[in-house]
Structure formats: structure tokens, C-alpha cells
């Protein structure tokens, strides 16, 4: 059985996909078929040669029967009195999208609440993916620093530090950093399914 245990050193998301795929007894061809991609593309993802966007990681997670949250890693231990309440700055679980310039840090202490908090960092040019995607629930965000382009449905918005937004995540959406500086976003997702 695959557990939600975290590791002390961050493992690239491609290696996590490979390990999970093998643990599930799924071949490269089987995973490629399930997500509608080529075997070469899946192999490149697993070797961290090709970028992994949020929509593709979501497809992989569904194909391997886990939540996308499974890919967050890091040392998430906390003193007993803080568990399920506090996430210290040096104790966040992280998800690094190899080759994309995107890192997400889980600010929520668990996945059992009504929403999930994530701190997203986008390097210049980094994006959630080249295509819009959907999920269930709602998304909210607050741009802490940098610039962010946000597409929701047919609308496009340029956001600056201090700007906030919400939208139904059932609307096709994507975002990227068009600026020359890192963009940092505080995300709120409901329900907590990334």
C-alpha cells in the first residue's frame, strides 16, 4: 500500500510518478494509455526531461488512483500540540514541477478541512501549463509579489501585488508569470483537492 508519508529530501515529481507507477504495477505504456499521451512523453516526465504541468499531473494522479496532494513532499512533522493547527515556515510540504519554474508549498496542516492553502512561486515565464484546465470547487488567490496573468474562461487579467481574485474552478483557467521577477501567490482551494 502507498502511504502519504513524506521524505526528508525532495524527490523530483518525475521520480515520484515513476515510483508510484511501479508500485501500482502499471507499465509506461499503461500510464501513457490512461492519460492519452505517448510512451515517450511519459518516459521523459519520469526522467524529468519534459515539464509537468498541473493538468498533466492531475491526469497522472487520477490514472494512478491518488489525489494530486500525494505529490507534496517534505518533512511535515510537528509537535503534538501544533498538529492539525500550525505549519511552521521551515516545515512545509513542497511540490516542485520539474522544468517549469513553479514550486507549490502546502500551508494547510492536513487535507481534512473545507479549504486548502498553498503558496505558489512562479519563476519569470513559469505557468500552470500551456492549456487551460478545470477541477471541482472554487479557487481564490492573493498576489503577494511579482506579476501574474490569469485566464478564466475567455477573460484575461493582469494582476499586481495586492490584487486578489476568486473564480469557480469549473471554468477553464490557467495562469503564468509574464514579469521579470518571481511571482508569489497565496492560493485558497475549496474543496482541498488541489
What does this structure look like?
The two termini are 22 Å apart. The protein has helices at 13-23, 28-35, 39-46, 54-63; strands at 93-97, 102-106, 116-122, 138-145, 148-152, 155-159, 164-168, 173-176, 183-190. The protein folds into two domains: 13-71, 434 Repressor (Amino-terminal Domain); 89-190, Jelly Rolls (Sandwich), CATH 2.60.120. The protein is an alpha+beta fold and 194 residues long. The strands form two sheets. Strands 1-2-3-9-4-7 form a six-stranded antiparallel β-sheet, with no helix packed on it. It has a three-stranded antiparallel β-sheet with strand order 6-5-8, with no helix packed on it.
Task: Give the SSE layout.
Blueprint: H1 13-23, H2 28-35, H3 39-46, H4 54-63, E1 93-97, E2 102-106, E3 116-122, E4 138-145, E5 148-152, E6 155-159, E7 164-168, E8 173-176, E9 183-190
Antiparallel strand pairs: 1-2, 2-3, 3-9, 4-7, 4-9, 5-6, 5-8
* pLDDT < 50 runs, ≥5 residues: 1-9
* Number of DSSP E strands: 9
Question: Which oligomeric form is depicted?
Answer: single chain
Cα(first) to Cα(last) distance is 22 Å
Specify the CATH class of the largest domain: Mainly Beta
**Share of helical residues:** 10-25%
At CATH's second level, what is the architecture of the largest domain?
Sandwich
Gyration radius, rounded: 16 Å
Work out the helix count.
4
- Biggest sheet, strands in spatial order? 1-2-3-9-4-7
What composes the largest sheet? 6 strands, antiparallel
Rounded average pLDDT = 86
Overall geometry: globular
Amino acid at each position: 500500500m502507498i502511504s502519504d508519508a513524506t521524505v526528508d529530501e525532495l524527490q523530483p515529481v518525475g521520480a515520484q510518478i515513476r515510483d508510484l507507477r511501479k508500485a501500482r504495477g502499471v507499465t509506461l505504456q499503461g500510464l501513457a494509455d490512461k492519460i492519452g499521451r505517448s510512451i515517450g512523453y511519459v518516459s521523459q516526465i519520469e526522467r524529468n526531461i519534459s515539464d509537468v504541468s498541473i493538468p498533466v499531473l492531475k491526469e497522472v494522479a487520477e490514472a494512478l488512483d491518488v489525489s494530486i496532494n500525494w505529490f507534496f513532499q517534505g518533512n511535515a512533522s510537528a509537535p503534538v500540540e501544533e498538529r492539525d493547527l500550525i505549519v511552521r515556515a521551515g516545515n512545509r510540504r513542497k511540490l516542485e514541477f520539474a522544468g517549469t519554474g513553479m514550486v507549490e508549498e502546502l500551508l494547510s496542516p492536513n487535507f481534512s478541512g473545507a479549504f486548502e492553502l498553498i503558496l505558489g512561486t512562479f519563476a519569470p515565464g513559469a505557468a500552470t501549463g500551456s492549456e487551460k484546465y478545470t477541477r471541482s470547487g472554487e479557487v481564490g488567490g492573493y498576489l503577494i509579489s511579482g506579476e501574474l496573468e490569469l485566464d478564466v474562461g475567455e477573460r484575461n487579467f493582469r494582476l499586481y501585488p495586492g490584487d486578489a481574485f476568486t473564480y469557480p474552478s469549473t471554468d477553464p483557467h490557467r495562469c503564468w508569470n509574464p514579469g521579470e521577477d518571481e511571482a508569489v501567490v497565496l492560493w485558497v482551494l475549496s474543496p482541498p483537492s488541489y
